[in-house]
Design a protein that fits this description.
The chain is of the alpha/beta class. The chain is elongated, with a radius of gyration of 38 Å.
């Protein structure tokens, strides 16, 4: 199947890079067996960014390759070495690209200005190393935090062509011929309906004004409801500064006339919505044919009575084209002057703020359908902590339990009736982490030391104690041999030197 050169709609799966894991390391050098923790933090994962490139006019690159992923952050290393951050992926999109979430339909951004960009999949945060986790109460953490996973999202890219003037009309009304006559665009032109299958853009220069004109594929009655090709391309005139009705005055189809054609197209534009404030011009085409010229003279006063400016044109003989191009340029200048200049902006998708100051977690008692139950804990903070924990490290699990206690989860479980040994599930979705509830001991012999603390850092090593005991015994024996009382802190070698 051939891939089209013009694509105005594409579905893209984007994934941010995962954050690197933190490092667990203890500084070691000669005569310093316990130099303290020195594990570095992991690097942040790269993000996926969409950025406007004015040189692009199609989304065909994402039709060919529909999955993009940023690189992961590197893990931390010993000696306080931080892991490298993952590289961002910048995807170029044309001006006028609307980005929406494919699952929810929510519009995330409307990229219309040069340089506008949006972060559609943020990279995961790197995990903290044990050096960053050390405190005055936890001097030697034997664990580090895992890096967070990058965001994953399926987005829908929809291109709405940015043009100053949109040409609308029935098939074979002469829109492609008009854009070819007033610009250097060379669209396909033939004497059968629906020759134009994709929007064509042309650049027109009228005096000191330069503007773009879009040739929208032919509309028919019912286009706003899906008939013909107009349903797919009506969105391309949503950004136009002005609309020009191109009406065929030499049609051979029975039951059609210029006024009826104008009413039908206006009805479709009204059904599509959002175009009521755009100024209109009417171009009565093919007046080089005598019968068409006579018909144009008849209907022009009726159309002008509606407040519309009418131009009698011929794309074959170029009659009336200069007046039409200058009239379009005047409308474009007025619309540009009324609109403020947009500045490039960077959009980052963030979770919607929660109203009020409610709890950071919720706990529900849920039955399993077989007489048992589980306490389900949900909340952004505890769920993130669970993902950062290495469950193969008992000390890391203990640190997680301490965090839950400080957050108040344990107190809330006890308040609502949880007992030791009950199942507690942390996390939303179908894959939570399940614990057996075990309240921490606040006092007693069971609590021998703080989690993450090492008594060796603030107590005397056994080898030092043993050496001092042997030294004290030696001095005591030496003093007894001399028959004199001796201070154990004073060296016996001094007395020997004095006797000599």
């Amino acid at each position: 199947m051939a891939i089209p050169s013009f694509v105005d709609r594409a579905t893209l799966r984007v994934s941010g890079g995962n954050g690197g894991h933190g490092c667990t390391s203890v500084h070691r050098e000669k005569f310093k067996p316990l130099g303290g923790p020195d594990g570095g933090n992991g690097g942040n994962g790269g993000s996926v960014v969409l950025r406007v490139d004015p040189g692009l006019t199609t989304l065909v690159d994402y039709h060919r390759q529909s999955q993009r992923r940023a690189t992961n952050g590197q893990p931390g290393e010993g000696d306080h070495k931080q892991g490298a951050n993952g590289g961002d992926i910048v995807l170029a999109v044309p001006e006028g690209t609307v980005v929406s979430d494919a699952d929810t339909g929510e519009v995330l951004a409307d990229l219309v200005g040069e340089g506008d960009e949006i972060v559609v999949a943020a990279g995961g945060k790197g995990g903290l190393g044990n050096a960053a986790l050390a405190t005055s109460a936890r001097k030697a953490p034997g664990f580090a935090l895992l890096g967070e996973e990058g965001e994953q999202r399926t987005i829908l890219l929809e291109l709405k062509v940015l043009a100053d003037v949109g040409l609308v009309g029935f098939p074979s009304a002469g829109k492609s011929s008009l854009i070819a006559a007033i610009s250097r665009a060379r669209p396909k032109i033939a004497d059968y309906p629906f020759t134009t299958l994709v929007p064509n853009l042309g650049v027109v220069v009228a005096g000191e004004t330069t503007y773009t004109v879009a040739d929208v594929p032919g509309l028919i009655e019912g286009a706003s409801e899906g008939r013909g090709l107009g349903f797919d391309f009506l969105r391309h005139i949503e950004r136009c500064q002005a609309i020009v009705h191109v009406i065929d005055c030499a049609t051979y189809e029975p039951g059609r006339d210029p006024v009826t054609d104008l009413d039908i197209i206006e009805g479709e534009l009204a059904a599509h919505g959002g175009l009521e404030d755009r100024p209109r011009l009417v171009a009565l085409n093919k007046v080089d044919i005598p019968d068409a010229a006579d018909l144009a003279d008849i209907v022009a006063p009726e159309i002008e009575a509606r407040g519309l400016k009418v131009f009698r044109i011929s794309t074959k003989s170029s009659e009336g084209l200069q007046a039409l191009t200058f009239a379009m340029a005047e409308l474009v200048r007025e619309r540009r002057a009324a609109q403020p200049k947009a500045e490039a902006q960077r959009i980052v998708i963030r979770p919607a703020p929660v109203a009020g100051t409610g709890p950071e977690f919720t706990i529900r008692r849920m039955g399993d359908g077989q007489g048992g139950f589980v306490w389900r804990v949900e909340g952004a903070k505890p769920e993130r902590w669970v993902k950062q924990t290495d469950f193969t490290n008992p000390e890391a699990v203990g640190y997680l339990a301490d965090r839950f206690t400080r957050l108040g989860i344990e107190d809330e479980l006890l308040r609502i009736g949880a007992r030791e040994g009950d199942a507690v599930a942390i996390g939303a979705g179908d894959d939570p982490v399940v614990f057996d509830f075990a309240p921490q001991m606040q006092s007693g012999a069971e609590l021998l030391t703080r989690r993450g603390d090492d008594d060796r850092l603030h107590s005397e090593r056994a080898s030092v104690t043993r050496r001092r005991e042997l030294d004290a015994e030696y001095h005591a024996a030496k003093a007894a041999a001399e028959g004199l009382p001796r201070d154990p802190k004073q060296s016996w070698r001094v007395d020997f030197n004095e006797e000599d």
